[in-house]
Amino acid sequence: MTSADANWLNWPNGWWVEHVAETTSTNIDLYDLAQQGAPTHSVIAADFQTAGRGRLDRTWVAARGANLLVSLLFRDLTRPQHHYTQIVGLAAVRACQQLAGVLPELKWPNDLLINGRKLSGLLAAVGPDFVVVGIGINMNWAPDDAISLSELVAGAYLQPADLLRLLLSNIDEFEQLSIDDLHGLYSASLSTIGATVRVDRTDRTVLVGRAASVNRDGRLAVVDDSGVTHLIDTGDIVHLRTT
Ligand code: BT5
After folding, report:
1. Whose CA is nearest to atom 29 of ligand 1?
2. The pTM is what?
3. Which residues contact 46 (CB under 8 A, 6 or more apart)?
């Protein structure tokens, strides 16, 4: 076993991590395993994805071995499904701070940004009695318009397994929070709240307004210039101005 392989051992209690060199998409693999009865807190991490998925049929790309590409399974659901994605997003923000000393901002619904550039994206796949949450975090490589942690930690090569260990520990902590406390923490952590945003809706209409709050059901309340509140559940948000 190489030292690189050895780093993919020893996880926080109750987490089962399978590390593969290459797959199509960790979300697809873990969804299949979940349907076959895999236990809660099963995890698949890959060095490389040939068909990494983004939202709305988009793709997620990464150089081989450079970034964290991982999916996590939650069963025995005791809270609304969207809370699991929020938990992973909050845990990722904190893990990046712990590993690299940089604090990404959290953009609704679950993007991590640094200096306005995308560091990480999350994608949930909801099954009959489970949720798979996938997350990609740019660690040592990023596409041109995006950003990686290593750009901010001069010269350091960051190990994906180290970030995953921190991510899982943080998830354990956030899973202890009550539904109310998690909603409060997530709302307070979103840099979107108070910002002027452009919403590119899936029906191709565009809305500009001020992001006022996030509802308990996860939807973003955006108030337009006429004072009308719109509740957004899907679509892309661009921060135009933050206050
Ligand atoms: C997301 O979609 O941000 C969700 C990404 C989830 C990826 C993880 S990796 C492990 C797991 N297995 C999977 O198959 N997926 C999950 P979305 O908001 O639609 O953003 C996708 C868009 O971001 C693309 O259309 C590109 O423009 C851009 N993009 C692609 N790769 C990127 C990267 N590495 N960094 C920043 N932006 C990227």
Report:
1. 60
2. 0.96
3. 19, 20, 21, 22, 23, 26, 69, 70
